[in-house]
Structures are given as C-alpha cells and as structure tokens.
Amino acid sequence: MRSIVDTYRSRTPRSAAMHERAVRALPGGDTRAVVSHRPYPLTMARAEGPYLWDVDGNRYLDLLGNYTSLVHGNAYPPIIAAAEEALRRGTQWAARNEPAVALAETLCRRVGSVERVRFTNSGSEATLLAVEIARAATGRRKILMARFGYHGSGAIFETGTYGREGPDTLLARYGDADDFAAVLERHGDVIACVILEPVLGAGGVMTPPPGFLQSVANAARGAGSVFVLDEVITLRLGVGGAQAGAGVAPDLTTMAKIIGGGFPVGAVGGSEALMALTRPDGGPVPSSGTFNGNPVTAAAGLVSVEHLTEDRIAAMARATEVLAGRCAAATEDNGLPGAVTTAGSLLNLYLADTPAVGPSRPDAAAIGLLHLACLNHGVFLAPRGMMALSTVLESHHIDEAAAGIAAALGDVAASLHGATASSLAR
Ligand SMILES: Cc1ncc(COP(=O)(O)O)c(C=O)c1O
Predict the structure, then answer these.
(1) What does pTM read for this prediction?
(2) How many separate domains does the chain show?
(3) Domain co-membership, 318 together with 293
(4) Which pLDDT value is given to residue 124?
C-alpha cells in the first residue's frame, strides 16, 4: 500500500513545484507560519462556496474557512457584490469613508460592551493596540494571559503561547480562576491588563468552566487592571460574540476575522471612556495605519456580520456536533485513541485519549499524518486538527466531510498498523 505521504506527493506535483519556486523568494516558502506543513503545503488556485481547488485541479471541502474568517464560505456572492461595488468607488483615500462608519455602528449595536471601535488591519495589531490602551489607562506595563493562549504575532504574546513568561508577560492556567487571582494578588500593581480568549482557539478549542471569565474579570478589576476579551475567533459564536453567551462585559474587546468578510482586518472596541485614549485629536495612544478602516474591507465585513444571524449560528453549532460525533465514532471504529472538542461552529480532533493544550502535543505526529490523509480524501482542515464550519455547509457536505475523515482515519490506522497505533498518543 502506498504511504499517505507518497499519495499526497503523487496527487500534488504542481504544488510541489510551486514550493520549490516559493522557497527561492520567501523564507521557508511561505509568509504565514500557520499554513506551512510537511512535506510541503498545497497551493490553491481558486475557491467557491464550500470548496477549494488546488493548482493540480484537486477539489477540497473547506472545513477551515481561512482559520475561521470565512464564516459564509468562499466568494460568498453577497460579500463579493458589496466588495465589488465598493471597489468601483476606489480602493482607499486619506479621509473618512461611510462603510467603516457603518461597520463600527454595527459592531457597537451587536456587541454589548462595545461603545466605540478603532480599526486595524489584523487581529494581531488589535491585541497589541489593546495592550497600549491598557498601559495608557493604568500607567503599568505588564500583561497577564493564559499559558498556551493565542493572541497573534507579537513578542509580548508569543512567549505565552509557547508556555514561557517574558519580561512583560505573566502567565496563569487557562480555566483556573484561582491561579489568575493568585498572580493578580502578587503582581497586580504592575499588570496593565488581563487578556483572555473566551475559548482557547489555537490552543485546541477548549471551553473554560462556567464562571471562569467573570471571576477573572472581577479579579482583574479588583487589581485595577483592564480586562480584555480576545474575540478574534469567538465573535462567530454569538450575535453579540461569546461574551454575550458567557454573560461577561469586558473593558476592551479585540475582533478580526469575520468582521472583514474575508479581507485583512482587526478592531478594538470598548467603553467610550477607554477608547477615547485613541482619539486622533489628542488621545495618548497613537494608532494610525494607511489602510485602517479600508472601505472595501468594511463593505465586505458589514455583509459578513449582518448575515451571521442567531439561526445560522445555531445551525452551524448543530452541524458541528453531528460531525464531531461521526469523527469520534470513526476514530473508535479504526481502533485509534481519540477525542474531539467543540465550541459552537469550532471543532478540534485529537488522536489521543485526552485533549492536550500546548505546542508539545503527544499526538502531534499522528495528527500531522491525519491532516495529510484528509487532504488525500479531499477534506481541508488545519494541520493541528482544527475545523471551523461555515453557513454554506449543508447536511450533505457534513456527510462528505465525515466520510472523508473516516477514510483518512482508516489510512492512518493502516499506516500505524503493527506499529504502535494506540501507544502513539497515549
Ligand atoms: C484569539 C486570536 N487573537 C488574535 C489573533 C491574531 O489575528 P491575526 O491572525 O488576524 O493577526 C488570532 C489569529 O488566529 C486569534 O486566534
């Protein structure tokens, strides 16, 4: 039997050739760490609705949506129409534009704790700006975040993502409010903000115990720190974001992904008083950017957000549970250790009995193999096993996804057969 890697190589010669070309111009052949994997990543040629096509003509069911951004699938016609119309008026000018105002108004209306919005061009810029606002508000420097939390590309966060404290970064255990309170008790006088994801996204789709977010918010405020909720991924979990479901009102909220309708975007929102620190006419936090509040992005983002209704959010969550159940059953049928975590339309597969948070997952090798096997069967998901469903996936797409993943699990089991299938991840 041909190995999973050999099958991948034989299906994707043009992606292999593009990789060889790319490494001569881009370090490592790409410009996003998260899309790079062995033996080489695919090069996609186009995308429509729930499908992607690579440069070799292979079709993939898109279960990732550019890491949760494309909540209505690829090239969603109402978004394309809005973006085209905006584009015809010009790409950007050095003055206010109406779509950016309309998107800000919509975010203020939907997200309970948000009274004012400041746009950036990525989620990473938004989280970095939130830290600067908190520093200006408190006169303190440090942040407290969850060990293995993810808040984007910025040295102050990345150290914590890899489980290490840094000069300005303190850590506590995600889901353990007492641990956060203890750190705040000891170091509260130097902590400008506590920043948390409502659900660990990159950390493996982990939902905290009820009351965790509120307890940390209370402890942060008790210490005079700003409480920042990073809703870059989780804004898709409710019309008012995950904060509405959790019943917590953060001081600042960071947003990105779905609010750009597929275009580069980020935003910080919060109370009028805190956000006033970024006022262009004399606020102490400088925040400018040639492309901030881009009108094409804003026009697309407005449609993306407005078409994300309560019903569609609930339908995606139901489809996610169906897919999770079928993945769990297929893992068991193939005699593999496995676990599946879910939160709304987000799902993460593990080839280990217990989901492990952090970069050194015991099932890293097996999940890497499963990812390639899924690609061989036309299912596109994150190399770490994460999926994010979209509103354009119908029940027959979920059947297609489940069948592809089951076939891929069969390939993984066969490839590990005789070796240490079950010992690999236990
Ligand atoms: C919770 C969270 N915060 C921030 C970011 C950074 O956003 P961006 O990739 O747009 O810079 C991400 C990206 O995945 C994220 O998941």
Answers:
(1) 0.96
(2) 2
(3) no
(4) 98
